[in-house]
Amino acid sequence: MSKPQPLLEVRDLKKHFHLGSGKTLKAVDGLNFAIERGETFGLVGESGCGKSTAGRTIIRLYEATGGEVLFNGENVHGLRGRKQQEFRRHMQMVFQDPYASLNPRMTVGNIIAEGIDIHGLYTGKQRKARVSELLQAVGLNEEHANRFPHEFSGGQRQRIGIARALAIEPQFIIADEPISALDVSVQAQVVNLFKKLQKERGLTYLFIAHDLAMVKHISDRIGVMYLGKLVEVTTAEELYANPLHPYTQSLLSAIPIPDPEVERTRERIILQGEIPSPLNPPSGCPFRTRCPMAMPECAAVMPEFKEVKPGHFTACHLY
Ligand SMILES: Nc1ncnc2c1ncn2[C@@H]1O[C@H](COP(=O)(O)OP(=O)(O)O)[C@@H](O)[C@H]1O
Ligand SMILES: [Mg+2]
């Protein structure tokens, strides 16, 4: 039996920014991964490693420098005109900052209905009913439609951002650090809302976060990025139980363990130094300058991103 076609497939995706100085910043430099229908794929890595650029390039807010994005088997980066418009309906984005991403002069109802209006889906009573349904789906109520963003808390604003993304019934949502700006007490509620909506609507997510603790409870599979590249991809369970890449191991060792006895005695891997500038990345493996396991080979040759166990991919000379 052949495997079902993934909803999204990213092949050797690249986004390079050409800076005024004649330099090239390789923000995203050759990503390969696929996301199955109904799955949540967590994309993780330190600030500046290229997560947002990857998300924005996939949804085509940026033109890719190279590679392909297949949605339902079709290369969406080649689409123009009506077909592009059609694709836009199926993919939506939720942004990190719920303060900056909502227009302060628009009512919540008009913000949520923006996509409905652009795509001409509903008008009048139907539009109003749709907005009410969306507000309820995200845990708000229909009276909120006439209010303005500043009247809401951070968590509520993120709920509005989610309702806006859902309005045109997309199949796929890219959530770019949707809980990073929220109070810790509110983060779990918003994660639970994402899960509930996924179940109810059969959604597929690319869920971006800067640490592994945040994606643990929502991801089916996880990709770890470092300096524009994926260093490891596997199921969430396997990643937490058997992390292969030294970078993933260091990220996991930074997450506190609830058991105080284990927490007190366990070994932590503290990384030396800062992330190198993507304008001037190290030769060979980009992680080698901070890697506790670095070998001479690592400076000479970029390790290939390959499947080292069934479904478990990593780019490291140790394997
Ligand atoms: N529009 C842009 N022009 C030039 N450089 C950019 C642009 N957007 C992001 N970058 C650079 O690309 C790298 C990756 O950024 P970003 O994708 O925002 O990382 P992350 O979301 O993981 O924090 C960073 O070095 C950042 O400075
Ligand atoms: Mg970002």
Automatic annotation (TrEMBL):
One of its GO terms (molecular function) is ATP hydrolysis activity. Residues 8-252 form the ABC transporter domain. Keywords: ATP-binding, Nucleotide-binding, Transport. Gene3D superfamilies: P-loop containing nucleotide triphosphate hydrolases. The keyword Transport applies. InterPro entries: AAA+_ATPase (IPR003593), ABC_transp_ATP-bind (IPR050319), ABC_transporter-like_ATP-bd (IPR003439), ABC_transporter-like_CS (IPR017871), Oligopep_ABC_C (IPR013563), P-loop_NTPase (IPR027417). One of its GO terms (biological process) is peptide transport. This is ATP-binding cassette domain-containing protein.
